[in-house]
Automatic annotation (TrEMBL):
The gene is ibpA. The keyword Ribonucleoprotein does not apply. This is Adenosine monophosphate-protein transferase and cysteine protease IbpA. Keywords: ATP-binding, Hydrolase, Nucleotide-binding, Protease, Transferase. GO terms for molecular function: ATP binding; peptidase activity; transferase activity. The active site is at H170. One of its GO terms (biological process) is proteolysis. Residues 91-228 form the Fido domain. It comes from the Bacteria.
Amino acid sequence: MFTIIDEKKAQLDAKRPLPKYTIRSLREKLNLEWTYNSNAIEGNTLTINETKVVLEGITVGGKTLREHLEVINHREAISYVEEIVQGNENLSAWQIKNLHRLVLKGIDDEYAGVYRDQQVFISGAVHTPPAPYLIQEQMEHLMTWYQGEAQTLHPIVRGAKLHAIFVGIHPFIDGNGRTSRLLLNLELMKAGYPPMVIKVENRLAYYNALDKVHTAHDYQDFIDLVAVEVEASLDLYLKAIA
Protein backbone atom coordinates (compact mmCIF):
# COMPACT_ATOMS: atom_id res chain seq x y z
CA MET A 1 0.00 0.00 0.00
CA PHE A 2 2.79 2.40 0.89
CA THR A 3 5.48 1.07 -1.46
CA ILE A 4 6.09 4.36 -3.29
CA ILE A 5 5.96 6.41 -0.09
CA ASP A 6 8.40 4.01 1.62
CA GLU A 7 10.76 4.33 -1.35
CA LYS A 8 10.64 8.13 -1.20
CA LYS A 9 11.18 8.03 2.56
CA ALA A 10 14.25 5.80 2.00
CA GLN A 11 15.57 8.30 -0.59
CA LEU A 12 15.16 11.12 1.93
CA ASP A 13 16.83 9.13 4.71
CA ALA A 14 19.78 8.36 2.40
CA LYS A 15 20.40 12.11 2.03
CA ARG A 16 20.62 12.75 5.78
CA PRO A 17 21.97 14.86 7.35
CA LEU A 18 20.14 17.40 5.20
CA PRO A 19 21.56 20.90 4.56
CA LYS A 20 20.90 23.09 7.62
CA TYR A 21 19.48 26.14 5.86
CA THR A 22 17.40 24.08 3.46
CA ILE A 23 15.85 22.26 6.41
CA ARG A 24 15.17 25.54 8.20
CA SER A 25 13.36 27.03 5.20
CA LEU A 26 11.37 23.83 4.57
CA ARG A 27 10.39 23.71 8.23
CA GLU A 28 9.22 27.34 8.16
CA LYS A 29 7.24 26.74 4.96
CA LEU A 30 5.49 23.59 6.20
CA ASN A 31 4.84 24.98 9.68
CA LEU A 32 3.23 28.08 8.17
CA GLU A 33 1.04 25.97 5.87
CA TRP A 34 0.20 23.59 8.74
CA THR A 35 -0.81 26.48 11.01
CA TYR A 36 -2.79 28.31 8.33
CA ASN A 37 -4.69 25.27 7.07
CA SER A 38 -5.38 23.73 10.49
CA ASN A 39 -6.84 27.01 11.73
CA ALA A 40 -8.72 27.69 8.47
CA ILE A 41 -10.41 24.29 8.68
CA GLU A 42 -11.84 25.44 12.02
CA GLY A 43 -13.08 28.78 10.62
CA ASN A 44 -10.15 31.15 11.22
CA THR A 45 -10.40 33.85 8.52
CA LEU A 46 -6.72 34.88 8.41
CA THR A 47 -5.17 34.30 4.97
CA ILE A 48 -1.87 32.47 4.68
CA ASN A 49 -0.04 35.79 4.23
CA GLU A 50 -1.84 37.28 7.24
CA THR A 51 -0.93 34.16 9.24
CA LYS A 52 2.73 34.70 8.28
CA VAL A 53 2.53 38.32 9.44
CA VAL A 54 1.01 37.30 12.79
CA LEU A 55 3.79 34.73 13.26
CA GLU A 56 6.24 37.60 12.74
CA GLY A 57 4.61 39.50 15.60
CA ILE A 58 2.45 41.95 13.65
CA THR A 59 -1.25 42.52 14.35
CA VAL A 60 -3.66 42.30 11.40
CA GLY A 61 -6.41 44.93 11.42
CA GLY A 62 -10.02 43.78 11.36
CA LYS A 63 -9.24 40.33 12.76
CA THR A 64 -10.24 39.11 16.21
CA LEU A 65 -7.92 38.52 19.17
CA ARG A 66 -8.95 34.86 19.08
CA GLU A 67 -7.80 34.50 15.47
CA HIS A 68 -4.42 35.98 16.38
CA LEU A 69 -4.11 33.71 19.43
CA GLU A 70 -4.98 30.64 17.36
CA VAL A 71 -1.95 31.32 15.16
CA ILE A 72 0.46 32.06 18.02
CA ASN A 73 -0.80 29.11 20.06
CA HIS A 74 -0.47 26.72 17.14
CA ARG A 75 3.15 27.75 16.63
CA GLU A 76 3.85 26.98 20.31
CA ALA A 77 2.05 23.65 20.00
CA ILE A 78 4.23 22.73 17.00
CA SER A 79 7.32 23.61 19.05
CA TYR A 80 6.08 21.27 21.78
CA VAL A 81 5.56 18.49 19.20
CA GLU A 82 9.16 19.04 18.03
CA GLU A 83 10.40 18.80 21.64
CA ILE A 84 8.60 15.48 22.11
CA VAL A 85 10.09 14.16 18.86
CA GLN A 86 13.62 15.30 19.73
CA GLY A 87 13.32 13.79 23.20
CA ASN A 88 12.01 10.52 21.75
CA GLU A 89 9.28 10.57 24.40
CA ASN A 90 6.44 8.05 24.51
CA LEU A 91 3.00 9.56 23.92
CA SER A 92 0.92 9.96 27.06
CA ALA A 93 -2.45 11.41 28.06
CA TRP A 94 -0.49 14.09 29.93
CA GLN A 95 1.23 15.16 26.70
CA ILE A 96 -2.12 15.28 24.88
CA LYS A 97 -3.51 17.55 27.60
CA ASN A 98 -0.42 19.74 27.38
CA LEU A 99 -0.84 20.04 23.61
CA HIS A 100 -4.46 21.02 24.04
CA ARG A 101 -3.55 23.50 26.78
CA LEU A 102 -1.26 25.26 24.31
CA VAL A 103 -3.97 25.27 21.61
CA LEU A 104 -6.53 27.00 23.86
CA LYS A 105 -4.17 29.18 25.92
CA GLY A 106 -5.68 32.63 26.40
CA ILE A 107 -8.76 31.60 24.41
CA ASP A 108 -10.52 29.42 26.98
CA ASP A 109 -8.19 28.88 29.92
CA GLU A 110 -10.90 27.22 32.02
CA TYR A 111 -11.10 24.28 29.61
CA ALA A 112 -7.53 24.27 28.28
CA GLY A 113 -6.09 20.80 28.88
CA VAL A 114 -9.22 19.67 30.74
CA TYR A 115 -11.59 16.95 29.54
CA ARG A 116 -15.05 18.32 28.82
CA ASP A 117 -17.87 18.09 31.36
CA GLN A 118 -20.64 18.74 28.82
CA GLN A 119 -22.10 16.97 25.80
CA VAL A 120 -20.93 18.37 22.47
CA PHE A 121 -21.89 17.79 18.85
CA ILE A 122 -19.67 17.96 15.76
CA SER A 123 -21.15 20.40 13.27
CA GLY A 124 -22.12 18.68 10.03
CA ALA A 125 -21.20 15.19 11.26
CA VAL A 126 -23.47 12.17 11.69
CA HIS A 127 -21.36 10.89 14.58
CA THR A 128 -22.15 12.12 18.11
CA PRO A 129 -19.19 12.10 20.56
CA PRO A 130 -19.55 10.12 23.79
CA ALA A 131 -21.10 11.52 26.95
CA PRO A 132 -18.66 13.31 29.30
CA TYR A 133 -18.62 10.49 31.88
CA LEU A 134 -17.27 8.09 29.21
CA ILE A 135 -14.33 10.24 28.13
CA GLN A 136 -11.78 9.13 30.72
CA GLU A 137 -12.44 5.45 29.97
CA GLN A 138 -12.33 5.95 26.19
CA MET A 139 -9.10 7.93 26.39
CA GLU A 140 -7.59 5.12 28.47
CA HIS A 141 -8.67 2.64 25.78
CA LEU A 142 -7.05 4.87 23.16
CA MET A 143 -3.77 4.90 25.07
CA THR A 144 -3.89 1.12 25.57
CA TRP A 145 -4.42 0.67 21.81
CA TYR A 146 -1.63 3.13 21.09
CA GLN A 147 0.88 1.39 23.35
CA GLY A 148 -0.05 -2.04 21.98
CA GLU A 149 -1.56 -2.80 18.58
CA ALA A 150 -0.78 0.65 17.14
CA GLN A 151 2.97 0.02 17.42
CA THR A 152 2.68 -2.79 14.84
CA LEU A 153 1.13 -0.48 12.22
CA HIS A 154 2.77 1.55 9.48
CA PRO A 155 3.39 5.09 10.83
CA ILE A 156 0.87 6.57 8.37
CA VAL A 157 -1.84 4.15 9.49
CA ARG A 158 -0.94 4.64 13.16
CA GLY A 159 -1.03 8.44 12.86
CA ALA A 160 -4.27 8.44 10.87
CA LYS A 161 -6.00 6.10 13.31
CA LEU A 162 -4.74 8.05 16.34
CA HIS A 163 -6.18 11.23 14.82
CA ALA A 164 -9.50 9.60 13.90
CA ILE A 165 -10.09 7.80 17.20
CA PHE A 166 -9.12 10.88 19.21
CA VAL A 167 -11.38 13.25 17.29
CA GLY A 168 -14.22 10.73 17.57
CA ILE A 169 -13.92 10.83 21.35
CA HIS A 170 -13.77 14.65 21.13
CA PRO A 171 -12.46 14.80 24.71
CA PHE A 172 -12.27 18.59 24.94
CA ILE A 173 -14.86 21.35 24.67
CA ASP A 174 -12.97 23.02 21.81
CA GLY A 175 -9.72 22.59 19.91
CA ASN A 176 -10.10 18.85 19.20
CA GLY A 177 -9.47 19.20 15.47
CA ARG A 178 -6.25 21.17 15.84
CA THR A 179 -5.05 18.80 18.58
CA SER A 180 -5.83 15.73 16.47
CA ARG A 181 -3.83 17.08 13.53
CA LEU A 182 -0.93 17.85 15.86
CA LEU A 183 -1.07 14.25 17.13
CA LEU A 184 -1.10 12.92 13.57
CA ASN A 185 2.02 14.86 12.67
CA LEU A 186 3.65 13.95 15.96
CA GLU A 187 3.44 10.28 14.96
CA LEU A 188 4.76 10.95 11.46
CA MET A 189 7.64 13.10 12.69
CA LYS A 190 8.64 10.52 15.31
CA ALA A 191 8.99 8.05 12.43
CA GLY A 192 11.20 10.46 10.48
CA TYR A 193 8.59 11.87 8.10
CA PRO A 194 8.18 15.58 7.46
CA PRO A 195 4.89 17.03 8.74
CA MET A 196 1.94 16.76 6.36
CA VAL A 197 -0.78 19.34 5.81
CA ILE A 198 -4.50 18.65 5.45
CA LYS A 199 -5.51 21.55 3.23
CA VAL A 200 -8.59 23.65 3.89
CA GLU A 201 -9.75 23.16 0.31
CA ASN A 202 -9.99 19.41 1.08
CA ARG A 203 -12.09 20.04 4.19
CA LEU A 204 -15.22 18.31 2.82
CA ALA A 205 -13.34 15.14 1.84
CA TYR A 206 -11.58 15.24 5.23
CA TYR A 207 -14.84 15.49 7.17
CA ASN A 208 -16.53 12.84 5.03
CA ALA A 209 -13.62 10.43 5.56
CA LEU A 210 -13.76 10.98 9.33
CA ASP A 211 -17.53 10.48 9.37
CA LYS A 212 -17.01 7.17 7.53
CA VAL A 213 -14.58 6.12 10.27
CA HIS A 214 -17.02 6.97 13.05
CA THR A 215 -20.20 5.58 11.46
CA ALA A 216 -18.92 2.58 9.47
CA HIS A 217 -15.56 1.92 11.22
CA ASP A 218 -13.96 2.16 7.78
CA TYR A 219 -10.59 3.95 7.95
CA GLN A 220 -9.49 3.50 4.33
CA ASP A 221 -10.61 6.84 2.89
CA PHE A 222 -9.00 8.71 5.76
CA ILE A 223 -5.75 6.75 5.56
CA ASP A 224 -5.65 7.38 1.79
CA LEU A 225 -6.20 11.13 2.34
CA VAL A 226 -3.35 11.26 4.84
CA ALA A 227 -1.05 9.19 2.60
CA VAL A 228 -1.52 11.60 -0.33
CA GLU A 229 -0.44 14.55 1.82
CA VAL A 230 2.48 12.64 3.34
CA GLU A 231 3.74 11.89 -0.17
CA ALA A 232 3.35 15.58 -1.11
CA SER A 233 5.56 16.59 1.84
CA LEU A 234 8.16 13.97 0.94
CA ASP A 235 8.15 15.25 -2.65
CA LEU A 236 8.72 18.80 -1.39
CA TYR A 237 11.77 17.68 0.62
CA LEU A 238 13.20 15.53 -2.16
CA LYS A 239 12.84 18.34 -4.68
CA ALA A 240 14.62 20.74 -2.33
CA ILE A 241 17.64 18.49 -1.86
CA ALA A 242 17.87 17.04 -5.38
